[in-house]
Design goal:
Helix content: 25-40%
CATH superfamily of one domain: Electron Transport, Fmn-binding Protein, Chain A
Structural class: alpha+beta
Largest sheet: 6 strands, antiparallel, barrel
Oligomer: single chain
Shape: globular
Strand order of the largest sheet: 1-2-3-6-5-4
Radius of gyration: 20 Å
Low-confidence stretches: none
Mean pLDDT: 92
CATH class of one domain: Mainly Beta
Number of strands: 8
Length: 220
């Protein structure tokens, strides 16, 4: 057996989306996706799911190349999903060139995932400043270091820069990184996916319909 065959055999032996969740009846879902998402997120939090606020943000650059990375979602307000990053970061530059993006949440212990697709906009600077000041010193220091995604000469260089930035953050709690910004993904569609024991998954999708939402089931 070749190495690839061994890996394939091991992967096939693993259970697929084996998490368990409470029964989900789409007929009882609220008229807008934000409320259902918050319910699912808080259930994931209460169940002890690891990093339930983490999501994969997928963007497309001006060259048409897709990028994806995991980040932390800060809030959901009026069917807009909020996250933060430096306005100089690669993802911010991609969003400036093409604001279309998607967030994917996956809670394996709950057997659930949610995909949010829409258009991203940058919120006023005051929102970014307030979010930055609310972060712990270690997180603020990471942003104050800067140079995100640029080539790094050595780990020692990074450590020295981080130590200096942490000293600044701890000595001046009001210090703000000017490039730190909050972004809102205004959803055009939100899909809820849940495993269903004994059959394929249940999929419920909301789509923006004028000023409101329409919803319906999807085949797995």
């Amino acid at each position: 057996m070749t190495r690839d065959d061994r890996l394939r055999a091991r992967l096939r032996a693993l259970p697929s989306f084996a998490g368990s969740a409470e029964p989900f009846d789409p007929a009882t879902a609220p008229p807008t996706p934000g409320g259902l998402f918050v319910d699912w997120l808080l259930e994931a939090v209460d169940s002890g799911a690891p990093s339930p606020q983490g999501a994969v943000l997928s963007t497309v650059g001006s060259d048409g190349v897709v990028s994806a990375r995991t980040l932390i979602v800060k809030d959901v307000v009026d069917d807009a999903w909020l996250f933060a990053t430096e306005s100089t970061s690669p993802k911010a530059r991609e969003l400036s060139a093409n604001p279309s993006a998607a967030l994917t949440f996956f809670w394996p212990t709950r057997g659930r995932q949610v995909k949010v697709a829409g258009s991203v906009r940058r919120l006023p600077d005051a929102e970014g400043a307030a979010d930055f000041r609310a972060r712990p010193p270690q997180s603020r220091a990471t942003s104050l270091v800067g140079h995100q995604s640029e080539p790094l000469g050595s780990i020692e260089e990074l450590q020295a820069a981080y130590d200096a930035a942490l000293a600044r953050a701890e000595s001046d709690p009001g210090l703000v990184e000017p490039a730190w910004s909050v972004y809102a993904l205004d959803a055009r569609s939100v899909e809820f996916w849940q495993t269903a024991p004994g059959r394929s998954a249940t999929r419920l999708v909301y789509r923006r319909d004028g000023d409101g939402w329409s919803s319906g089931l999807l085949w797995p």
